[in-house]
Design brief:
alpha/beta; three-stranded parallel beta sheet; globular; 13 strands
């Protein structure tokens, strides 16, 4: 999927971020009023009071939101709870097989999901990215975004076409860069691959431990040699924002939502897809094995896929909704952010995260720790 069907997926997903959408907005029946509660474990910053309040108004269900900062935090918490404690979780699609492996999430009843509300391209392509395991669907795709290059417009201005992951590791960024250790190794790897400095294609690292070792040994050596560029490592949204806000970062590999939030504060921070391709991810809603409020979980899934909810989410986070029709309701600010981040052929160059098997995560964490401790 990394180099397959990208334009077809983004033809729909891009529309949800402000591009032209062929299908008109259609009327939908109102939601039947429910009751009770819904316990949601989701990324910090994804669900604000407006979104949670709108869901309660539409359904009568009271949502309880608990935030987390990383995929690993989510997985570890769910493992500690033996798949219980929450009714909905929000993992990235490439990590869904990890939850299935440990019996932490349950197959979805597709008859209870209003599939027509999801961009067909996102629904179809999510099957190849990890949402479907052994013929059973475990996740509904709800949003997508990227990790690319955030930059201070005054100190390190960058332009599409020349902007590169290499800008994070070059001499001009000495003592001014911020990255997340494990994904920075992949971004650095894409730059090294484009420079002809990897022993084999980066994607091979996801196929076997032996290939991962061969490739990541080269990437790690380069990262350690250039570690002086890093003024701060980040692990979650708050840390990434803080690197620019208070700790002197002028460039970094961050999520789209990080740069968007800083720009909303008035800071001169831009976000651009590098010429090697922005690291793209898809996320969605999954139901833990021990969920107690199943009907309410499906009610939230279907409500979140309405155009109104999708647009509310994108306007708040600058992360792109997969809800059909949400594009018609986006703010001008959200549309402008998308256009600036992915100009030209940027959508054709997106690098979609492959499925990350448990063996890959284990070795990835080993390389991350060696980088951090070097």
């Amino acid at each position: 999927m990394n180099r397959l069907d990208r334009r077809r997926l983004l033809k729909g997903a891009g529309a949800a971020a402000g591009l032209a959408l062929a299908a008109p907005l259609v009327a939908r029946p109102g939601f039947a009023q429910g009751s009770g509660t819904l316990n949601i474990f989701a990324w910090a910053g994804y669900l604000n009071d407006e979104i949670l309040g709108a869901f309660k108004d539409a359904t009568g269900i009271t949502p309880n939101f608990t935030p987390y900062g990383t995929n690993d935090e989510l997985l570890n918490q769910l493992r500690a709870n033996n798949g219980g404690g929450f009714d909905l979780i929000w993992p990235t699609v490439d990590r869904v097989p990890n939850y299935v492996e440990f019996g932490l999430i349950q197959p979805l009843d597709e008859a209870k999901i209003e599939v027509a509300k999801v961009l067909p391209s996102a629904w179809e392509n999510s099957t190849k990215l990890g949402a479907v395991v052994d013929g059973k669907r475990y996740q509904v795709p709800t949003d997508w975004g990227t990790e690319a290059v955030a930059f201070d417009r005054d100190q390190m201005p960058l332009e599409y076409g020349s902007a590169s992951y290499g800008d994070i590791w070059g001499e001009a960024a000495a003592g001014k860069a911020t990255v997340r250790a494990h994904s920075a190794l992949v971004g650095l790897g894409l730059w090294l691959e484009a420079e002809g400095k990897l022993p084999r294609p980066l994607l091979d690292a996801f196929t076997s431990p032996e290939a991962q070792t061969e490739i990541f040994d080269v990437i790690l050596a380069e990262a350690v040699a250039r570690k002086g560029n890093i003024i701060q490592f980040w692990n979650n949204e708050n840390e990434a924002q803080g690197a620019f806000r208070v700790n002197g970062a002028a460039v970094g590999q961050t999520w789209d939502s990080t740069a968007a939030a800083l720009a909303k504060e008035g800071l001169p921070v831009g976000f651009i897809a590098p010429k090697e391709g922005a690291l793209a991810w898809m996320e969605g809603l999954s139901i833990p094995a021990g969920a107690e409020n199943l009907d309410n979980a499906y009610a939230f899934i279907n409500w979140f896929l309405t155009p109104e909810a999708g647009a509310m989410y994108t306007n708040a986070t600058s992360i792109n909704s997969t809800a059909v029709g949400s594009a018609d309701l986006l703010s001008d600010e959200a549309k402008a952010f998308f256009a600036a981040a992915y100009p030209g052929d940027a959508l054709d160059k997106l690098w979609w995260w492959p499925i990350q098997e448990s063996w890959y995560i284990t070795k990835r964490n080993e390389y991350q720790d060696r980088f951090l401790s070097a």
